[in-house]
Design a protein that fits this description.
The protein has about 325 residues and is α/β, with parallel strands linked by helices. Helix 7 packs parallel to helix 9. The structure holds iron/sulfur cluster (SF4). This is L-lysine 2,3-aminomutase.
């Protein structure tokens, strides 16, 4: 795959099958046949960094729950959708999603360092990489170049930090040089899930741009901020990258006021401003993670007075049909 070093996508130490997980003590042997069936449908990847965070003695470990497949994924509930955020109808050219007038997404690849069991793009992301070919990337960049109303280019995927620093730097540099692009944003799980990929070369590539760059770090539990993750985040910050936090409200991971408080405090300690707390998108086989909106609002209400305003993200939900995000409150008058 162009632009991804083999070590970036095929690390020998990343666990990629039910058998790998069982051998590492992350899956009971009895669960292997069902998880093999899950793996035939949805990609599996658990990095050494993530495997090292799992408390194997805790059957309800919030780290394991995010990444270790479960037989329940084989069941698709009637309300679940293959493309819950409806990227497809808003795709003018391959790899681009244009939903709002002033910003657009670029998805240069569909590979991730880990595969989250609740992912809203789980039908699209996977180990085969989904990297845009040279001609496809040129067409996507040409689309940005002829869209003067688009001021913000948002790299997502997949995980753009899986690209080699040279490839990523080149894409961001091309966007940054467009006169109408005022800022760049990258969405990534790499700093917490594969912090070793945040090399000095990667930080340098992100820091060398003419435009401001914001990195939205996806993390859902305080324990994801390991010493290695803190180091990776510090490297990015010193290079001039502004860090924001995005999380998903997940049953069994962060569905208590204590867990959310811990998560947002951990973000602030890492110099990350919590930005969005997402309501789970109804992707297939993710029902075990769903928390009702009213419960989400109650959790945020419970945080009032417990944490400073700096720790507050906006609680949002993607509207069906790709109509965009709507804030879910709680409203001030409800407090
Ligand atoms: S890193 Fe992001 S895109 Fe990749 S599987 Fe997790 S949630 Fe999905």
């Amino acid at each position: 795959m162009p632009g991804i070093s083999s070590g970036r996508i095929m690390s020998a130490r990343t666990l990629r099958s039910a058998a790998d997980l069982a051998e590492a003590g992350l899956l009971p042997n009895a669960a292997v046949p069902a998880v093999e069936r899950v793996g035939a449908r949805y990609s599996i990847a658990v990095t050494p960094a993530v495997a090292g965070l799992v408390d194997r003695a805790d059957p309800a470990d919030p780290i394991a729950r995010q990444y270790i497949p479960d037989a329940a994924e084989l069941l698709t509930a009637p309300h679940e959708l293959a493309d819950p955020t409806a990227d497809e109808p808003f795709t003018p050219v391959k790899g681009v999603v244009h939903r709002y007038p002033d910003r657009a997404l670029l998805k240069p690849l569909l590979a991730c360092p880990v595969y989250c069991r609740f992912c809203f793009r789980r039908e699209a992301v996977g180990a085969d990489g989904g990297v845009l070919g040279e001609a496809e990337l040129e067409a996507a960049l040409a689309w940005f170049a002829r869209m003067p109303a688009v001021r913000e280019a948002i790299l997502t995927g997949g995980d753009p930090l899986m690209l080699s620093p040279r490839r990523l730097g080149s894409i961001l540099g091309r966007l940054s040089a467009m006169p109408h692009i005022e800022l760049l944003r990258v969405h990534s799980r790499v700093p917490v899930a594969a912090p070793d990929l945040v090399t000095p070369a990667l930080a340098e590539a992100l820091g060398a741009l003419e435009r401001p760059i914001y990195l939205c770090v996806h993390a859902n539990h305080a324990r994801e901020f390991s010493p290695a993750a803190m180091e990776a985040l510090g490297r990015l910050q010193r290079a001039g990258v502004v860090l924001l936090g995005q999380s998903v409200l997940l049953r069994g991971v962060n569905d208590s006021a204590e867990a959310l408080e811990g998560l947002f405090r951990a973000m602030l300690r890492a110099r990350i401003k919590p930005y969005y707390l997402h309501q789970l998108d109804p992707a297939p086989g993710t029902a075990r993670f769903a928390v009702p909106v009213e419960e989400g609002r109650a959790l945020l209400r419970a945080l009032r007075g417990r944490v400073s305003g700096l720790a507050w993200p906006t609680y949002v939900q993607e509207r069906p049909g790709g109509a965009g995000k709507v804030p879910l409150g709680p409203a001030y008058e409800e407090a």
